[in-house]
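Thread: "does anyone have the structure for this chain?"

Original post by V.I.:
We have the sequence but no experimental structure in hand. Need at least a predicted one for the grant figures.
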Amino acid sequence: MNARQRVTWPGVVLRVVTGSLGAGMILLPAPELPGRAWLLIPAGLLLVAASLGGPLARWRAVGTLAAAAAVVESAFGLPSLGVLAGEGLLILGYLLLVDAPGVMPGTVTARWLRLQLPAAFWGTLTAAIVLVVLAVPVPVSAWLLVAGAGAAVAATVIALPRRPGRPRQPR
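Reply from O.Q.:
Generated one for you, tokens below.
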């Protein structure tokens, strides 16, 4: 944002919620982290802050890097299934909201949020299914590992921020 843009309350609330989700995704796996992995916490929090404002906020990959820091923290910490499910939902919410346009009036913000509901619904459903599937003890097989890796890649591709398309010209 530059000084000429007018700040609206819906935009401020959206940024506060996004920052809260980002801080939550970074801090949730923190109690499980071993020694040197604690360095990921300030790095992740700095990435979250940079994705919300300042010159790096225009670079869409900053939000993705913050989410990647949260994933790496979870990998190092080996938290419980419930914590992993919560972490997944926090990352989903953060990635959906960090991609919001900067300045929007209240009605546009409400419409934009409504357009994000299908992704939030399917992401929540997927997290619940993964939680149930992981809670059931299954012997490890190569096919199960390949399917899990494929699902992780698909989820990452879906969650990555996209560049907005060019608006259509009025007729």
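V.I.: this helps a lot. The chain has a mean pLDDT of 80.
O.Q.: and The chain is about 65% helix and 0% strand.
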